[in-house]
């Protein structure tokens, strides 16, 4: 599996988590209590699997080469598009974490902020993933020289193997499956 195929597969896992996030928010909207452990797991998944693991490969390998080798169009697409959206996602997660803390400390109105930040993140990432799968990855694959793509694939494979030794993929996919059983059953 090359690096782009791997990243698309990871997108599928992230989209699965976004469905869980939406269901957890629907539960709050319907008057249910916030399950802080579940939300903390969702945030952990986003920060460590979607951001550090998945975005890590994008930012360190594919996007870096697109910025360096694909001229102004590549630079603008990555710097003013994809990386900005990654930062917005991080902001949503920070704001969600703060909102959960406020609710836990008795601020009922902050439930609105929990829902808005979680749903904002889910909406942002859904659109972001569609852009990457349908345009950004294809632009990179079609325009980066073959030797550069081979190097990206090699670095991504090394990154992936190191993460596998640490059990990152298994841990977060197990977490995802457990949350799906709870929220999507």
Automatic annotation (TrEMBL):
- The segment(s) forming the Hemerythrin-like domain are 4-138
Q: Which InterPro entries did the record assign?
A: Hemerythrin-like (IPR012312)
User: Which Gene3D superfamilies does the annotation name?
Assistant: nmb1532 protein domain like
Gene Ontology cellular component terms for the protein in this record: plasma membrane
Q: Extract the Pfam families matched here.
A: Hemerythrin
The protein's name: Hemerythrin-like domain-containing protein
